[in-house]
Amino acid sequence: MNIYVPGMRDRRTAAADETHAPSAGGGPRPIYGRGTSARRMSESRRAFDVRRASFNRAPTDINTVILHQITAFHPAQLPGEATDGDIHSDHSLDHVIAHFVVRATGEIIYTHDVQFILNSVSGRHGVDIEFEGGYGHQATPQGTRLSRQAILAGQRLLRWLDAYLPNLRYIHPHGQIQGRGRGKHDSCPGPDVWVNVGQWAVANLGLISDRPHHSYPNHGISPAQSNPNYDQHVS
Ligand SMILES: [Zn+2]
């Protein structure tokens, strides 16, 4: 699905030959969801080009946005815009398992088409947005904060997704709906992302956060994640 958002780089083609994301422990993780045509193609010996894989869902199947933080910065600049249409172009953000990445600089990247199901918590009905960087969840903010540019970019991306996706109704922090364990309950994403972008979308776009669509578990939103001390009052 073609989506235009001001300030966004469309890296779907540049990321089209990526099959796996590096991960800290346990080896690389497949980018595409189990059972999808893209995943099968990535497990075959053929050269991988996701543009030849069939989509898994219609835009009307999407009802949820899930916010994450990458926990790391990817300091290298993206190669020039001319490379966005070059399947051989490569940047570490092309491998992130998400549909969109919001960089600390405020740049938005569309890496994986929203009509693909990814190997992540978003499943059949969700879109994943990853925020570049690691942001803490102490009682009072300390260390690196989510930048004003990234907050504004996240809000802008959500405004446009709300316009493009007719059935979009829900927004959640990853920790609220994670399937196994509770390891992300406080930490993905940090309150800087949830308070300044997620709660903004609840207040300004009317998205629902307290009760997820029935296809997701609901662990509630952690008080550490919704800590009002992190409100940067940016909009
Ligand atoms: Zn996450």
Explain what you see.
With 235 residues, this protein is of the alpha/beta class. It has one domain (8-18, 59-230): Lysozyme-like, CATH 3.40.80. 18% of the residues lie in helices and 12% in strands. The protein has 4 helices and 8 strands; from the N terminus they run βββαββββαβαα. It has helices spanning 37-43, 148-164, 174-177, 191-205; strands spanning 8-10, 20-21, 29-30, 64-69, 100-102, 108-110, 126-131, 170-173. A 6-stranded mixed β-sheet has the order 1-6-5-7-4-8. β2 (20-21) and β3 form a beta hairpin. α2 (148-164) crosses α4 (191-205). The radius of gyration is 17 Å and the shape is globular. Zinc ion (ZN) is lined by residues 68, 174, 184, 188. The site of zinc ion has 4 residues, from loops.
Helix/strand layout:
Blueprint: E1 8-10, E2 20-21, E3 29-30, H1 37-43, E4 64-69, E5 100-102, E6 108-110, E7 126-131, H2 148-164, E8 170-173, H3 174-177, H4 191-205
Parallel strand pairs: 1-6, 4-7, 4-8, 5-7
Antiparallel strand pairs: 2-3, 5-6
Helix pairs in contact: 2-4
Zinc ion binds next to loops.
Bound small molecules, by name, code or SMILES, are:
zinc ion
What kind of oligomer do you see?
Answer: single chain
Largest sheet, order of strands side by side? 1-6-5-7-4-8
CATH topology (level 3) name: Lysozyme-like
CATH level-two architecture = 3-Layer(aba) Sandwich
How many runs of DSSP E, i.e. beta strands?
8
User: What share of residues are in beta strands?
Assistant: 5-15%
Structural Rg: 17 Å
Helices and strands: which structural class? Answer: alpha/beta
Global geometry: globular
For the termini, the CA-CA separation is 27 Å
